[in-house]
Amino acid sequence: MKILKLALPSLLAALTMSACFNDDGIPKPVNEEELITTVTITLKAEGEEDVVLQYADESGLGHSHDHEDGDGDDHDDHDHDHDHDHDHDHEGVEGSASGPLKSGVTYAATIVLLNQSLSPAKDVTDEIKEEADEHQFFYTPVGLDITTDYTDEESDYITGGSENPVGLQFTLTAGTAGHGDLNVILKHQPQKPNTGLENAGGETDMEVNFHLHIEE
Domain range for residue 119? Predict the structure, then answer.
């Protein structure tokens, strides 16, 4: 399984170098971990202007989220603390919104993840589709009157998949005017079915916040 990570391209070289040789100087297999450098959520509604939410590593807000044992002492306090995901440094990663949401409007939403450290860029979303039963996105409003609902399920992407949601497609309904954050988390191997982050478990492959405004 390829673990998906949000990371700065500048960290890629260090990770690659560390993966090339073992302690005896013997070459090791290339690390198959995948980077997520760009996150784009597109919100569409009939008669309304599209709203695009985007995080890109060139903003300087990326973090390395290493889930493997022994990959850095400074991560020991939270690498496997899945019950308190909102308490660690993922929370510092913020993206931007192209414009405000309109109160009372329901938007059809899609999320796309890219690895733009490669040329050409790699669509990481394809890997999530191939392993839909091992991934789930969670969309949580913070101080913002919005509701989200999944509109896809595993069976949309894999043969024999269940009706459990994946979250590559969803709806977002804007409520009363105001502002706040939309927290977006991608979990690897969560418990399915679940009722939300509280009992999903799994590992956090990606987390990013978007500050949003709702206008009347």
Answer: 4-215
